[in-house]
Design brief:
Radius of gyration: 21 Å
Structural class: alpha/beta
Largest sheet: 4 strands, mixed
Helix content: 25-40%
Shape: globular
Strand order of the largest sheet: 23-24-1-25
Bound molecules: shikimate-3-phosphate
Number of strands: 25
Distance between the termini: 5 Å
Number of helices: 12
Length: about 425
């Protein structure tokens, strides 16, 4: 699938983007191992979240839906999962693979996790290594890549682990393994990362202890009680429209019911530092997660040095923020973001290449990028099977001098299945080919 974008236009109106991907994954995982029935609303019906549903169905969990964002999970309890018949296909989803590895380490059966061409290139030793320290048997392929086989023996011991990188996936993997471990499992992170696992475990009645700002701990052997989960709209998906409105003169867009967890709002903080006209209304807490409505109107942006403490809080939003930087006056510098090189694509290189194609000076560095604001031209860019790259360059067309053609856009369906429809409704001149 390819996207064809005509240049110009602006975005207006009120939109609700699909459910949060991170929270959707976790709602299935925790619902599956809880006692009782968990009802989920606002669930992301994207391919990544469906991969998680399919994996749990393959392990004997009855799951109804999704239908219009509603899912019902019949929990089997902490020890009720059954051995799958074949490999579990995680598609494009790193979150499914890494979090599931932790859960599988606690089972009494073996399972193999496989993924698509992009996921098959991503590092898995970051979870395999600490799981082995807990006593699990985990095999990865050359270079620590998938497929990953977890030979569950039902014997894990709690450990303390200092995360070498700021990763919510690794933290969550270890907390899920910790549910099955003897004694306490604790994780210290080098910088705050999304805490949806911790919040949702508490929502399922499982005791999670936050020790200071950086350490989280739990004890194995408890139980989770089924609950109801209302998934907020994904701030990572809302980002494309926030940036679209920020860069396109005449824009005025409101994104409703967006998750505003403090560990996810780096994009708001960074856009505001760049001079964006962004306001938040109707702030409230839904199911343990803060939500609100975000309104963005066009305002000329300026280049900034992005504060490094914002990097983990905006980690998935950088491809879109690079488009904002390309439209800003002056230079934007990002440092301390080497993790971007191991996402669904090498997001530093792929964005630098695409921006260069469109005539923007973008200099990749080992851990970031330097972008000079300028005039976006036209051309063909490659998304490298990365949903967020495809959507970011779609937004760029609002300020481009000519058409933009984006290749390999199928994976937009992993996180934002109705992106094209919402983009058209908001005013973007996007068409799908193939
Ligand atoms: C996620 C954590 C982040 C993020 C990913 C989703 C999660 O990954 O990039 O899209 O749901 O825990 P890392 O843990 O690799 O930073």
């Amino acid at each position: 699938m390819e996207f064809l974008l005509k240049p110009g236009g602006c975005v207006t109106g009120t939109l609700r983007v699909p459910g949060d991907k991170s929270i959707s994954h976790r709602s299935i995982m925790l619902g599956a191992i809880a006692d009782g029935v968990t009802d989920i609303s606002g669930f992301l019906e994207g391919e990544d979240a469906l991969s998680t549903i399919n994996a749990f169905r393959a392990m004997g969990v009855a799951i109804e839906g999704p239908e219009q964002g509603r899912v019902r999970v019949h929990g089997v309890g902490l020890h009720g999962l059954r051995a799958p018949q074949g490999p579990l296909d995680m598609g494009n989803s790193g979150t499914s693979m890494r979090l599931l590895a932790g859960l599988l380490a606690g089972q009494r059966f073996s399972a193999t996790l496989i993924g698509d061409v992009s996921l098959s290139k991503r590092p898995m030793e970051r979870v395999a290594k600490p799981l082995r320290l807990m006593g699990a048997s985990v095999d990865t392929q050359e270079g620590g890549r998938p497929p990953m086989t977890i030979n569950g023996q039902g014997r894990l011991r709690g450990i303390h682990y200092d995360l070498p990188m700021a990763s919510a996936q690794v933290k969550s993997c270890l907390l899920l393994a910790g549910l099955y471990a003897e004694g306490e499992t604790s994780v210290t992170e080098p910088a705050p990362t999304r805490d949806h696992t911790e919040r949702m475990l508490s929502g399922f009645g499982y005791a999670v202890e936050q020790r200071g700002p950086a350490t989280v701990a739990l004890r194995g052997g408890g139980r989770l009680n089924a609950t109801a989960i209302d998934v907020p709209a994904d701030i990572s998906s809302a980002t494309f429209f926030m940036v679209a409105a920020a860069i396109a003169p005449g824009s005025d867009v409101t994104l409703t019911h967006v998750g505003l967890n403090p560990t996810r709002i780096g994009v708001i903080n960074i856009l505001r530092l760049m001079g964006a006209d962004l306001t938040i209304a109707n702030e409230r807490v839904v199911g343990g997660e803060p939500v609100g409505d975000i309104r963005v109107r066009f305002a000329q942006l300026k280049g900034i040095d992005i504060p490094e403490d914002q990097v983990p809080l905006a980690i998935d939003e950088f491809p879109a923020l690079f488009i904002a930087a390309a439209c800003a006056e002056g230079v934007t510098v990002l440092r301390g973001a080497e993790e971007l090189r191991v996402k669904e694509s090498d997001r530093i290189q792929v964005m630098a290449d695409g921006l260069a194609t469109l005539g923007i000076r973008a200099e990749p560095t080992p851990d970031g990028i330097v972008i000079e604001g300028g005039r976006l031209g036209s051309g063909t860019v490659h998304s490298h099977h990365d949903h967020r790259i495809a959507m970011s360059f779609s937004v760029a067309a609002l300020r481009a001098g000519g058409p933009i053609h984006i290749e390999n856009c199928d994976n937009v369906a992993t996180s934002f299945p109705n992106f094209v429809e919402l983009a058209q409704r908001a005013g973007m001149r996007i068409e799908v080919k193939g």
